[in-house]
UniProtKB/TrEMBL annotation:
Domain annotation Nucleolar protein 11 C-terminal: ranges: 363-670
Gene Ontology cellular-component annotations: nucleolus
Domain of life: Eukaryota
InterPro entries recorded: NOL11, Nol11_C, NOL11_N
A GO MF label: RNA binding
Keyword Nucleus assigned: yes
Signal peptide positions on this chain: none
Localization annotation: Nucleus, Nucleolus
Annotated ranges, domain Nucleolar protein 11 N-terminal: 1-284
Protein name: NOL11 protein
Pfam families: Nol11_C, NOL11_N
Keywords on record: Activator, Nucleus, rRNA processing, Transcription, Transcription regulation
Major location (coarse): nucleus
Length: 672
């Protein structure tokens, strides 16, 4: 999520609809989805096209799939029947019995009890609510009637399993939470009425919470999402945490951007939509005590701050995942590499506006001047909600024309769109391949800087091209040199001027005898950090790759295909940047969009991981590795020496604060 980048994204065809949440099969590491109620899809991470994934058409509509870590996936049909996925795949068209007749399923959950999967779901018919308990592997089914509540009905359900009893929590429209114990061991076949008891009244200090969703945190705490209404005040949506043992409000937080009314909880993290973003909030349940409950209540009413929850994620950095309307499945994961800026996470949007699609269809065979004129008018007229979709469609139309007509390439128009609009790779997936084919390096630089979701395959393709293209070709191409012009001096003949480098803690003469292998004199030319091993144009292109975000898991397989000589050249440049950074006390290169020390180190490690065997075998690479090892070792030794005098430096800093700033003096301090 912090990477702002989908590690895997699969979309159904236009017109198809995902009709239940996608789940993961923990045993096979596969994803399971249902679209159009009856079509089952199963695929793995490496599968790219969802349309080519495993497909099974079922004989009845699916309500939801539940996946248990030790019990496997369970398929709950709208008719109330439950099947394990293995049994269902043996005969996808098997007859599904009708369990609930005319009742509608309102909620469902799955648990493991005595190593047996249990599915519990609640249904509603004509204002009456029923609860079903099924054990599919034991062919066991029990039906209960929920005790009615006068002038009130359940709005939301949640449940937990403890001591062979499922406790169902019901959020009612009378602003109260009731608990209903459901026994899993039942001897009689007769329908029983489940009694309920009041667990929590959602009111405090005259304010009433109109809840929409709740989750259980532990035996004494629940979280409720809803609208807090106070007398003579506008209702405000907020997330609240309640102590059910002492009937107190533990803490709360306003959500001014609004929510979808849904709240999820997993591994001590809340997940909720706040405005158009997915927000993740960490929490930690404390031991329930009366003093703590009263204290938290006081804090929540006065300061609004509580150690119970880390509310910081609701401030400026909450844009974790931006949403756009789309029928697709997107998975996000953490990456230790080059985190993506949290300003944009746009998913691919297919144009739904009929007029836009019809216009593009009509312009398919139009002359070039007419095409560009109409597309510019379309962009200027696009409404804000559909603006990105319309622009993505415009770029797609232009790249399609480029592919059908090799002589056509509207470079200035494409540059204008990319530089002035907030686009993403998934909105125009053909743009970068076309630019790569045309060797439009400037446009590729802009895309690498601006697009938040470039696939690792495309990042590698750019890197490979930037390393393999000839210097003669680069000299006649337009390249943005802003990222290198401040630390690579260029003369009028476009050749680099060598500058003296003073390396932190490194002295070649003193350290020469400490290196195990002898370095030939020729290695002191272009690979020793005194001069850049590539031209400024190539360096600028490589810098744009260093800035692009990536996932190590997905980039490493592509990086292993990089030819050995290109890998060595890239490592030489990274080593040059590393030495350049080490000149500065703050290890920061000057200039605009210059690589950071972390980006340089991450790419060096990644490159060595991908080509370690080659680096060890080739003589020129072995010499470079030896110099790199010597330089790093010298820096480690230098910082180690600094650590030894850290205490003395702190004492010196303290004395400076104590000294009268008005008095001039010269002092000699002896460091022992």
């Amino acid at each position: 999520i912090s990477d702002q980048k989908p590690l895997g994204c699969w979309s159904v065809k236009h017109g198809q609809v995902l009709t239940c949440p996608v789940v993961c099969n923990f045993e096979t590491h596969e994803y399971i989805a249902v679209h159009d109620d009856r079509v089952l899809r199963i695929w793995k991470d490496e599968d790219i096209n969802l349309d080519k994934a495993f497909k099974a058409t079922l004989s009845a509509d699916v309500h939801r799939i539940h996946s248990l870590p030790e019990g496997g996936p369970l398929v709950l049909f709208k008719a109330g029947a439950v099947r394990t996925l293995d049994v269902l795949l043996e005969a996808p068209q098997q007859e599904i019995e009708n369990v609930v007749s005319d009742e509608a399923i309102r909620w469902s959950g799955a648990f493991m009890e005595s190593q047996q999967p249990v599915v519990v779901f609640a249904t509603e018919k004509d204002g009456d609510f029923f609860v079903y308990v099924q054990k599919p592997k034991l062919d066991s089914l029990h039906r209960y009637r929920l005790e009615p509540q006068e002038s009130s009905e359940p709005l939301s359900f949640t449940a937990y399993l403890k001591n062979q009893t499922v406790t169902l929590l019901c959020l009612y429209s009378n602003d109260s939470v009731y608990q209903v114990p459901i026994p899993l061991q039942q001897d009689t076949e007769e329908e029983q009425i489940l009694p309920k008891s009041l667990l929590l009244n959602l009111s405090v200090s005259g304010s009433v919470l109109k809840g929409t969703s709740l989750v259980v945190l532990d035996k004494d705490h629940v979280a409720v999402l809803g609208s807090l209404a106070a007398p003579d005040k506008e209702p405000k949506e907020c997330l609240t945490i309640w102590n059910t043992k002492f009937q107190t409000l533990q803490t709360s937080k306003e959500l001014p951007l609004g929510t979808s009314g849904q709240l999820w909880c997993y591994e001590e993290k809340f997940f909720l939509t706040h405005g158009k973003v997915l927000t993740v909030i960490m929490y930690k349940c404390e031991t329930s005590s009366l003093a703590a409950a009263v204290g938290k209540l006081k804090d929540s009413q006065t300061t609004g701050v509580s150690p119970f929850v880390n509310w910081d994620t609701l401030e400026g950095d909450e844009l974790l995942v931006s949403f756009q309307p789309q029928e697709s499945v997107a998975l996000k994961a953490e990456s230790r590499m080059n985190l993506r800026p949290r300003r944009s996470g746009v998913a691919r949007v297919q144009p739904e506006n009929f007029s836009v699609g019809q216009l593009l269809l009509n312009l398919k065979d139009a002359p070039t001047n007419v095409l560009e004129k109409e597309l510019k008018q379309l962009m200027s007229k696009a409404q804000t909600p559909d603006l990105q979709a319309a622009i993505g469609s415009v770029v797609t139309a232009l790249t399609n024309r480029c592919k059908t007509n090799p002589r056509y390439y509207p470079r200035s128009f494409l540059l204008q769109i990319v530089e002035t609009r907030d686009l993403s790779y998934s909105l125009c997936p053909d743009l970068m391949p076309v630019a790569l084919e045309k060797k439009d390096f400037y446009l590729l630089q802009i895309c690498l800087q601006r697009f938040p979701d470039i696939p690792e395959e495309m990042t590698y393709a750019c890197l490979n091209e930037f390393l393999s293209v000839s210097d003669a070709c680069l000299r006649v191409r337009d390249v943005d040199l802003d990222s290198v012009i401040c630390y690579i001096d260029v003369d009028f003949n476009n050749k680099e001027v060598k500058t003296e480098i003073v390396e932190n803690g490194f002295n070649a003469e003193l350290d020469q005898d400490m290196c195990d292998s002898k370095i030939p004199d020729q290695t002191h030319s272009r690979s020793d950090g005194e001069s850049c091993p590539v031209t400024p144009q190539r360096a600028a292109l490589l810098n744009s790759v260093l800035h692009s975000a990536y996932s190590e898991t997905f980039l490493l397989p592509h990086l292993k295909n990089l030819p050995a000589q290109q890998a060595i050249l890239f490592l030489r440049y990274l080593y040059y940047l590393y030495v350049k950074c080490s000149e500065k006390v703050n290890t920061t290169l000057p200039g605009v969009r210059s690589p950071t020390i972390n980006q340089i180190m991450d790419w060096m490690c990644l490159l060595l991981d991908a080509h370690f065997t080659v680096m060890v075998i080739l003589p020129e690479a072995r010499e470079l590795l030896s110099k790199l090892h010597k330089f790093v070792r010298a820096q480690v030794r230098f910082y180690s020496e600094l650590n030894k005098i850290e205490g003395s430096l702190r004492e010196l800093q303290r004395l400076n604060h104590l000294r009268d700033s008005q008095t001039y003096s010269i002092e000699v301090l002896e460091i022992i």
